[in-house]
Each structure stands twice: as structure tokens, then as C-alpha cells.
Design brief:
The chain is an all-alpha fold. The protein has 18 helices and three strands. Helices cover 75% and strands 3% of the residues. 53% of the residues are buried. Keywords: Membrane, Transmembrane, Transmembrane helix.
């Protein structure tokens, strides 16, 4: 069969609204036909609630391995004799692995199927959590690498599964997926220290507890193994993303806003402990800030898509994020919760808009899948530099005041990238059936 090649030009969405509407209607009709065909031959697909529950449980596990470390970082560092630079590396390694291993996701999915890969990587994630909580300093770093790699692979695959199996509700499901991510992060940030205190002040037990939700998610994901998805299995090769400026602007925005997010996950509790809070109080502030993200992660994309483009929305959410960060770092401690709420509103919006931009800047699902892999692969690799830089600066200066420069530089870069990524254009690529 001859390859069918199509070229997606970078152009305003508004100028092609009628054509795009017709194309979307055609895609929806095709998707409905495919769904009916799959449902007739595979009874489990008639129960989308089972897939929905599995997706939510998997998504809940994509942040605890990252956010559970921050409230215990001081205790772990003292216990193992880590320097601030080593602690910074500990917060950086999982984020770096998010980017380094993200490109493996589509390769593994083509080879084994997305559902099997998600199940296998959930078990790998569980192994990483056990490793880092039971085998001293070597296990701590090795487990962090394994956990970050696992999260990076699953994080690339889940949006594609959402777009494939919930085509008519992709926006709503993306919101549910994002909320599950935030909820998992908040749960881990707020409860890890109390859990460690419950288990005789054992930081290893506090970190190791999060193997349980990973195993539960694997059990509920098991029914998805072996199902087929008809025409949805058609694969495409997308060329030209690495040469497209818009794709790089989306990637830079994803990476820079993620850098601030992982600085918060990795270092905010330590910063607050340095300002006089107890580890439990600092963990609760982080947890509360992340819970606030649940609201803005749904509201920001909805509001952003009501205008002609997303540039204003990006500037607003980044301004809220920077305001919250500077407030937590410099403002009087009495108003800390107000700044934490502001930070949560900003960061929930920045993350959900980063995911939304991947969809809006792509003409179809296979372009979106490849743009997702690019933006997460390169973006998270870039994001990992932020937590490491905070650790190095803290080690050099012996305090936290200087990290405000990191906040400002990264935030300004995210705004500049977002002003490019937020324009109503498509990435210019060539798509080829394989």
C-alpha cells in the first residue's frame, strides 16, 4: 500500500474554522463507527467506567513519587549525610528522567501496545518506590531514577489513550486526568510526614507507603490488557516537528513552567522549614497549594479557549505563579497561606494550559501525540535544571533569598515562550501512515 502523506501547515485556526469544523465532524463520525465495531467484538469496552476508573487510579500515581520526597528532604539528608547539592540532585534526577525516558513511550507502545506498557511500567514504578525507601543512599538515588523514568513513560501514553477512547469527551477527560495528577501530588505532599511519624518517625516507611496505590492501580488496569481498538491502532510517522519554531515554543513553555512546578515540589517545604515552619506544617502548605490547582486546572483551559488565542491567559497564570512564589519566599510568614493559594491558582493554570497547547497547536491526534512526546521529552529535561540550580545556589549562599533570581529568570522565559506558543497557529509537519 502506498503511504498516504498529508502536510499540516502553520496557519491561524480562525481562518480555517469552517473547514476545521467539517474535519472534526468527520473524525467524530469515524470514531463512533470504530467504537461500535470494537464494542461488538470486545464486551469490556462497553464498560467505559472501568477504563475511566483505571485512568484515574493510574494518574493518581504520577506525582506521589515526586511530591512525597519534598517534606522529608531535610530528614533524609540528615539521615544519610547528603549535602545541599546532593539533595538538589535527588530532586532533579526524577524530573530529568521524565524527559530522558519520555521518547521511549511511543516506541514501547508500538511494540507491545499502550495498555501492556502502562501495566508493566506501573510495576516498575512500584519497584522504584521500594528501592528508594529500603536500600540506603544508593537505593535512594537508583529508585528515584526508576520512578522518574516510569512516570515519564506513562505520562506520555495516558493522553493518547484519553484521546483515543474518549474522543467525544477529550476536553473533559483531560481535565479529569489533570485533576487526578494534582490530587495525587497533594495527597503525597500532605500525608507523607504524618505517615512517617506514625511508623516510628521512619522516613523510609513514609516514602515506601506509596507503593500501595501503585499496586492498586495495576490491579484495576489489568482488565485493559488484551483489548483491541480497531482502526485506532493505525500508526503515523510525523516529520518536521524539530524544525518547527512553534513546536519549540510549546516545548519551552512546557519545560519552563514545569521547572517552577518541580522546584515547588522539591524545595518549597525546605524553604518554608527554613523560614520557621515544622516539616508537617510545610507539607500541609504544599498540599494545600496543590489542592487549589484542582480548580484552576479546569478553569484555565476553558477560559483560555474563549478568546482568539491563549497569550493573555498564559501571562495571567504565570503572573499568579510568580506572585505566589515570591510571596512564599519573601513576604511575612503570617500571610503564607494566601500566597500558597495564589501559587496554586497560578500553577494549576500553567500546567493545564501546557497540556491544552499541545492539542490546540496540533491539527489531529497523531500530530498531538508526537508533539506531546517532544514537549515532554525535551521540556522535562530542561525542567530538571531548575531544582538542581536551587540546590546549588542554596549550597553556595547558605540561605534561600538568592533563589528568587531563579524564579524570576525561569518565569520570564516561560512568559516569552508562552507568548509564541499561545498564538492561534498549527505546527507545520508532514504525517505519513506506516
Amino acid at each position: 500500500m502506498n503511504p498516504e502523506t498529508e502536510k499540516t501547515m502553520s496557519r491561524p485556526e480562525t481562518a480555517n474554522a469552517p473547514k476545521r469544523t467539517a474535519e472534526l465532524e468527520e473524525l467524530l463520525i469515524d470514531a463512533e463507527a470504530d467504537d461500535e465495531q470494537v464494542q461488538q467484538s470486545h464486551p469490556l469496552v462497553r464498560r467505559p467506567w472501568l477504563l475511566l476508573l483505571g485512568l484515574i487510579l493510574v494518574a493518581l500515581n504520577l506525582r506521589p513519587a515526586l511530591s512525597s520526597m519534598a517534606p522529608l528532604l531535610s530528614e533524609v539528608s540528615k539521615s544519610l549525610g547528603l549535602t545541599a547539592a546532593q539533595a538538589g540532585l535527588l530532586t532533579t534526577l526524577p524530573v530529568l528522567c521524565l524527559g530522558l525516558f519520555a521518547p521511549l513511550a511511543p516506541v514501547l507502545a508500538r511494540r507491545f501496545g499502550a495498555e501492556r506498557v502502562v501495566l508493566g511500567i506501573l510495576l516498575t514504578l512500584a519497584g522504584g518506590i521500594i528501592l528508594r525507601s529500603n536500600f540506603g543512599e544508593i537505593g535512594l538515588f537508583a529508585g528515584s531514577v526508576l520512578g522518574g523514568a516510569s512516570i515519564g513513560i506513562i505520562g506520555v501514553l495516558l493522553p493518547g489513550i484519553v484521546k483515543r477512547d474518549f474522543a467525544r469527551h477529550a476536553g473533559t477527560m483531560t481535565g479529569v486526568y489533570t485533576m487526578a495528577l494534582c490530587l495525587g501530588a497533594a495527597m503525597a505532599a500532605g500525608s507523607t510526614v504524618p505517615l512517617s511519624e506514625h511508623f516510628d518517625h521512619s522516613w523510609a516507611m513514609g516514602l515506601g507507603f506509596w507503593v500501595i496505590p501503585a499496586l492498586v492501580a495495576a490491579v484495576f488496569w489489568l482488565p485493559q490488557i488484551g483489548q483491541k481498538h480497531g482502526a485506532h491502532n493505525v500508526a503515523y510517522r510525523v516529520r518536521g516537528l524539530l524544525r518547527d519554531p512553534l513546536a519549540w515554543q510549546v516545548t519551552l513553555y512546557m519545560g519552563l513552567q514545569s521547572s517552577l512546578a518541580y522546584i515547588v515540589f522539591g524545595w518549597l517545604p525546605s524553604i518554608l522549614i527554613g523560614r520557621g515552619l515544622t516539616p508537617t506544617q510545610a507539607g500541609l502548605v504544599l498540599s494545600g497549594s496543590v489542592i487549589i490547582q484542582l480548580a484552576s486546572s479546569l478553569a484555565a483551559p476553558w477560559l483560555a479557549t474563549r478568546g482568539k488565542d491563549q497569550r493573555l491567559a498564559i501571562v495571567v497564570v504565570m503572573a499568579l505563579t510568580l506572585g505566589g512564589l515570591f510571596g512564599c519566599l519573601y513576604a511575612p510568614i503570617e500571610g503564607l497561606w494566601g500566597w500558597a493559594i495564589l501559587l496554586g491558582l497560578g500553577q494549576g493554570g500553567t500546567f493545564s494550559l501546557a497540556l491544552t497547547l499541545i492539542v490546540l497547536r496540533s491539527r489531529d491526534s497523531h500530530v498531538a501525540a508526537n508533539l506531546s512526546s517532544m514537549s515532554q521529552g525535551f521540556g522535562y529535561t530542561l525542567a530538571s535544571m531548575g531544582p538542581f540550580a536551587v540546590g546549588v545556589v542554596h549550597d553556595w549562599t547558605g540561605g534561600w533569598n538568592a533563589v528568587g533570581w531563579i524564579f524570576g529568570i525561569v518565569g520570564a522565559g516561560a512568559i516569552l515562550a508562552g507568548l509564541g506558543a499561545g498564538r492561534a497557529l498549527y505546527v507545520q509537519v508532514e504525517s505519513e501512515k506506516v
